[in-house]
Amino acid sequence: MSTVEAKPTVRHPEKAHRPDNPVQRRKPEWLRVKAPVSKEYNETRQLMRTLNLVTVCEEAACPNIGECWKKKHATFMILGSVCTRACAFCNVATGMPDKLDPHEPDNIAVAVGKLGLEHVVITSVDRDDLPDGGAAHFARVIQRLREEAPGTTIEILTPDFLRKEGALEVVVAAKPDVFNHNLETVPRLYPSIRPGARYFHSLRLLDRVKELDPSIFTKSGIMVGLGETAEEVAQVMDDLRSADVDFMTIGQYLQPTPKHAAVDRFVTPDEFKTYERKAYSKGFLMVSASPLTRSSHHAGDDFQRLRAAREAKLTAQAVPAAE
């Protein structure tokens, strides 16, 4: 009797037959990180497997995983591990989505408790197949965390809920502390880098969060090194401020595989400092701009600074009014 070996799953089937893009050159010194080998890293990884949880740290091949998991700071990715979009920059698997796990909200609450997280980041794949894009599931996760970890602040990084009427309202009503949705790149590059999304829809999503609940902090980020210009990045900053976004992140794009978009160039640390100064000059409460900046990197510490910056701004505004 012969046996047929199962073919390995193709992580990015939509890219499989495309020609390879040039692979990024040797990374400069400022982008090199140590391999994750700590005891805490292995303990965090084992906890995720035991609770059947997915992390964006692993799925997106984040370069900061060793540093973050050594501190037991994991970023959870809900709604399954397979995305319905096919962005040119992202390493998350694409294809037929997973079924929703009804135990996921409970398991995330357990993990947050075991890791001792004071601030947790919850992100997700895009779920265009679901009528609400996964909004109700986001709300259930937030609710469960409020019940089981009332002292933990909650940051969410959501998809764009494109063509999902009422979905955003469901998530905002659950009252996360921070609502993050990344623009990812400049509008000119959307057709090639983020073809399933619409720049001005994403911008309007962030604006709408503030309309619905001004107390929620809003956050967004972009990658650089994809071929954008400094002028285009400055325009994105202006667009985000027009939507009253509080916090902007800017990090270096890194090419996950030869099938993904090529790195145009490695942006220098000095250029990131220039971006940071420019963003602060435009009125953001918080800016994180560095080669290794990612949406959830140092999110807990950043949240404390973000909250302090808002309090300082409100105090400054109150003084002239009192006078």
From TrEMBL:
It is an enzyme of class 2 (transferase). Binds 2 [4Fe-4S] clusters per subunit. One cluster is coordinated with 3 cysteines and an exchangeable S-adenosyl-L-methionine. Signal peptide: none annotated. It is found in: Cytoplasm. Its cofactor is [4Fe-4S] cluster. SMART domains: Elp3. This is Lipoyl synthase. It comes from Oceanibaculum indicum P24. The gene is lipA.
